[in-house]
Design goal:
elongated, four-stranded antiparallel β-sheet, Alpha-Beta Plaits, NDK-like_dom_sf, ATP binding, alpha+beta, 16 helices
Length: 342
């Protein structure tokens, strides 16, 4: 064309391409909304838990008749046999849950008695781990029949802890301790009793200089940070998060402390996350946090408030006390709802 018409300039064609849609929710779960300049605070966050990489885990159930008298003894026996107790909780079975959980025993003549026993009060649930955990627990449990367990191995858990401690005659053959002895049963029980949860955590203004260290401790203790956000809490935010203590005499001081500078809000994910986070942060008063541990335990190894807290109000960290509270705090601070069931 230029050879025939040297002065010809072809018209410019501008094509406007539609920008690709961005999944904002995905971004929320991949990057922090606010960068602080600190390297560790700009790390990517995750939306799924990685595969568990520790020793095999098992679940042990201390049934209602043994709850008061034997639960601590079972924990001690597990620890003496090399198990590390990771978490415990009370769990009360509904009749429907009990029937579903023990469906494989429905054909037994003692099935209805078992269901009645399992719904008679709280069950103490233990999550523990060690190498060769399944085989070791199987050998410790003994037979599912009390008479057989007593005859074959009087020192097994089911023989030692399945009879009335007050000397009453045992009138049935049921045992009061159960446990997971296959990979499938362990996985199912872990998901039932210690489900993956998300909880709300807050690193307070008084601990700002230690935020990096606290986040490192959080990661070391098996939590995954789903999202994080530096926020300047408003008085209304403080009233919302601390609604349980608005009528306390110290609330005005708490308000001043929580609005004195930025806080770092976190969404944490772990198995049984609410209880796990409450245990890690420790008692509200840092002095109580230090005093509550036995002499052979260094509180700073296991309790954030003992490590970073300065006083009752300047105690470094906060956490939701239950899943409902976690969900509404996540909604308020991060602007999106915690998933149903998490």
């Amino acid at each position: 064309m230029n050879m025939l018409f040297p002065d010809f300039s072809p018209p410019k064609v501008i094509i406007y391409m539609k920008e690709p849609e961005i999944d904002q929710q995905s971004i929320l779960f991949k990057k922090s909304l606010v960068k602080t300049g600190e390297d560790i605070l700009s790390d990517e966050v995750v939306s799924v838990m990685p595969e568990y990489e520790g020793p095999p885990r098992i679940i042990v159930l201390i049934k209602p008749p043994a709850y008061d008298s034997y639960r601590n003894s079972v924990v001690s026996d597990l620890e003496l046999n090399g198990f590390k107790v990771l978490s415990t909780k009370d769990y009360t079975f509904s009749e429907k849950e009990a029937r579903e959980f023990y469906a494989e025993f429905e054909s037994l003549s003692s099935y209805e008695l078992l269901i009645s026993l399992m719904t008679s009060g709280p069950t103490f649930v233990i999550m523990a781990c060690r190498d060769n955990a399944l085989n070791k627990l199987k050998s410790m449990l003994g037979s599912e029949s009390f008479a057989q367990a007593t005859k074959e191995n009087p020192d097994c858990l089911r023989a030692k802890y399945s009879y009335p401690p007050n000397g009453e005659v045992k009138e049935d053959d049921l045992t009061w301790v159960d446990g997971t002895v296959t990979e499938k049963s362990a996985e199912d029980a872990l998901n039932k009793f210690f489900p993956i949860e998300k909880t709300f955590a807050l690193l307070k203004p008084d601990s700002r200089s230690a935020w990096n260290d606290i986040i490192e401790d959080i990661n070391k203790n098996g939590f995954k940070i789903v999202d994080k956000k530096e926020v300047e809490l408003t008085p209304d935010d403080v009233k919302f998060i601390y609604s349980f203590c608005i009528d306390k005499g110290y609330f005005d001081d708490l308000m001043r402390q929580m609005t004195s500078g930025p806080s770092l809000a976190l969404i944490l994910m772990a198995q049984d996350a609410v209880k796990k986070w409450s245990k890690l942060i420790g008692p509200t008063d840092p002095d109580s946090a230090v005093d509550s541990y036995p002499d052979n335990v260094n509180p700073e190894d296991v309790c954030l408030r003992a490590t970073y807290g300065k006083s009752y109000l300047e105690n470094a960290v906060h956490g939701s006390s239950n899943l409902k509270d976690a969900k509404i705090c996540i909604q308020r601070i991060f602007g999106y709802a915690n998933e149903e069931g998490s």
